[in-house]
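Quick check before the chapter quiz. The format below is the same one you will see on the exam, so make sure you can read both the input and the output lines.
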Amino acid sequence: MIERQRRIDTSTAKAVARGMESLSDTDVHRESDESLAARFEITFDGKRYAFRQHRYDIFEDALRYAAAEHAKAGFMPDESFQADWRARYHPSEEEENTMRLHGIAYAGGHYLYAGYRYEQLRDALAFAAGHPNL
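Here is the expected output.
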């Protein structure tokens, strides 16, 4: 079992290395995240990065996986892919006022309250209303 896992890890590492080779030249280091995303079929909705059915909080994680997938033999580009890179989401002033009243913070695309993180403000508000002063 350990040997099989080591072979899987090795093949994954090789695929990632092949995928990252195309990212290692000096032109790419100057390429914007938005441009790299379009090249590797990654979108950004203002909160999360996506490559096909996978979602990521960190762009580098999405890029690493997408590059590894692109490097695999037989990889088929998604002909229907549409580049989509939206501005980073920030709560409105009204939402920030409501959050402040309940002790909710917003960071890294998540609403934070009492050690929990929420994707939607309404969920954080619902928990905070039922568990004040945490």
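If your answer matched, good. The helical segments are 2-21, 26-30, 33-39, 59-71, 93-102, 121-130.
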